[in-house]
Amino acid sequence: MGRAFRLLVLAGLALVIGACAVRPPYEPADDPLQPMNRVIYKFNDKVDRYALKPIAKGYKKVVPHPLRTGVTNFFSNLKQPVVIVNDLLQGQVLQTGSDTSRFIWNSTVGLAGVLDVATPMGLPAHDEDFGQTFAVWGFGEGWYLVLPFLGPSTVRAAAGLPLEWELDPVYRTQRIALRNSANALRIVNTRANLLGASRILETAALDPYLYTREAYRQYRWNQIYNGNPPPPPPPDFGDDGNGVH
C-alpha cells in the first residue's frame, strides 16, 4: 500500500509539473526536449534495426500464426486488470462490466486468455490506461518525450507507467528468470505484430521523428475519446473590419 501511494504521489507531481493545459494533436506539440528526444529516438531506432526487428522477423517466420495469436491474446488478457481499474476511474460503468466479464470468460474458458472467447460473445476488447485516465481528469499531455527502449510518450502518459507496472503480474513476479522471459516474449511478439507498420514509417516519412511524434499524439487523442474525438475548431480567418470572421 505504501509503495502504491508513493507511486501515485510521484505520478501526481509529474502531471502538475509537466501537464498544464490540454493540447489536442491539431495544435503544435510541446517539444522543448527535442534535441535530447532525437538522440534517444536514434538510439531506439538502432536497437530496433539491429536487434529487435531481426529477432521479430525470425520469430514470425518460425512461430505459426495461431500460436502468435494465442501469445497476443494471453498478454492482452494479463493487461485487463489495468483496463478495468481505469474503466472505473473514468466512470465508464457499462464498459467496466463488459471488460470484467471479458476477463472472467477469457481467463477461464479461454484457458488463461490464450483463446479469445469473449469477443464472439459481444464483449469487445478495450484499451484503457492511466495516461488516458489522467486526460479524462483534465490533465494536459505535457511535454513530448521519447523514452529509452519504450519509444514515444508524454509527461502525462509516462506518469501512469509506474502505476501500470504495479498492476502487471509479469513485472510483479519475484522469479527473475520467469519475469525476464515473459517480458522478452511479450516485446518480441508485439514487435512482430508491428512489422507492417514499421515498413510504412520507413517509406512514408521524410522526417521519421516528426512523423512518429504526430502519429503518436493523434493515436493517443483517439484513444482518450474511445475512437470518437471532437472535431477540430473551424479555421479563424480573422476580422475583415465589418464584424465578419
What report would you give on this structure?
With 245 residues, this protein is mainly alpha-helical. The protein has one domain. The chain contains eleven helices and two strands. It has helices spanning 2-18, 34-62, 65-78, 80-89, 93-108, 130-136, 155-167, 169-172, 176-193, 195-204, 208-224, and strands spanning 144-147, 151-154. A two-stranded antiparallel ribbon has the order 1-2. α2 (34-62) crosses α9, α3 (65-78) packs across α9 and α6 packs across α7. The longest helix is centred in the N-terminal third of the chain and has 29 residues, at 34-62. The chain is globular, with a radius of gyration of 20 Å.
Concise synopsis of the structure shown:
With 245 residues, this protein is mainly alpha-helical. The protein is built from eleven helices and two strands; from the N terminus they run ααααααββααααα. The mean pLDDT is 88.
